[in-house]
Specification:
Blueprint lengths: L2 H8 L9 H65 L2 H18 L2
Length: about 110
């Protein structure tokens, strides 16, 4: 009786490291390790990009707020100028309307 036969009868089969079964098992283990590594790296990259996008969004929101305040100040200045002297605004609006009508005729 050979050692392989005895081990097989006891349910303890020796595995040849070069057998197809052993190679497939090693490949499954390698694929599992690669999958875990890729998953970890993808999570880290997503976290990094999320942080960067958050920072960019915050900066854009701050700049937009500042621009809105500046535009509001300029609008108040323009409204004050029109209240003091409405003639230039009326002349500008009339010129714009005349120009639009002339361009629409073509």
């Amino acid at each position: 009786m050979s050692l392989n036969t005895l081990l097989t009868q006891l349910g303890l089969q020796r595995h040849d490291p070069h057998s197809l079964e052993a190679q497939l098992h090693a490949m499954r283990r390698d694929v599992h390790g690669i999958r875990q590594s890729l998953s970890r790296q993808t999570g880290q990259a997503a976290n990094h990009w999320g942080n960067q996008l958050h920072d960019i969004g915050s900066a854009v929101a701050t700049q937009t707020s500042e621009l809105a305040q500046l535009a509001g100040q300029e609008a108040r200045k323009g409204a004050g100028m029109i209240r003091r002297d409405p003639v230039p605004a009326i002349a500008l609006a009339g010129t714009a309307l005349l120009l639009m009508r002339l361009l629409n005729r073509r």
